[in-house]
Amino acid sequence: SGSAERAYTPQTQSNRVQSFEPQFMEPLQNVTVTEGREATFTCVVDHLGGYRVAWIKADSKAILAIHNRVITHNNRMNVIHSDHKTWELKIRDVRRNDSGEYMCQINTDPMKHQVGHLNVVIPPDIIADETSGDVMTPEGSTVRLVCRAHGYPEPRVEWRREDGRHLVLRPPGQPKTEVLTWAGPELVLEKVARDDMGAYLCIASNDIPPAVSKRMVVQVH
């Protein structure tokens, strides 16, 4: 807000008494955290003297906190001044839209600042109402199994048979192929035979644990 910005102005030469300029002692680390957990940025400043430390959301230019006082109306954020050099910005119950650049700033003239990036990740989750269940089908028909998942980053979906046997693919007009795994949200089994009977697993993963799977039984009669 305008009032917060006016209150947060660089100190002039005349009212500065310390002989040392404040300086950052280490870079602001990037933070990757799972949605719902807590994220912490740590800013270490030496020779702060009478200057103030502010936290700013760099992409929106919103002032989050000045010194020990939280300015933002976001009640999931708080600041901790643990020793005379360490300033922490904590964000509880992080959400995907908290992602972005966060700035630790000292009101010197010119201002000093450093920036860290918050990346909020979401483990994969299979979307139940967009995913197939068990199937019973006559021999020689086509079975289309669908498995959709969401998360951040976008999950990969892979298919395999529960018993470890090959998936048999018979695309129209092409030779039959056998593979151990198949990637993609849909698995199409053409001209199903009795050998295709059994349990199929779709596995969704995006390197954010845990991976999740759904089991589908195909019955051929």
Automatic annotation (TrEMBL):
Keywords: Cell membrane, Disulfide bond, Glycoprotein, Immunoglobulin domain, Membrane, Repeat, Signal. Its main location: membrane. It is found in: Cell membrane. Pfam families: I-set, Ig_3. SUPFAM superfamilies: Immunoglobulin. The keyword Metal-binding does not apply. This is Ig-like domain-containing protein. It comes from Cherax quadricarinatus (Australian red claw crayfish). The lineage of its organism: Eukaryota, Metazoa, Ecdysozoa, Arthropoda, Crustacea.
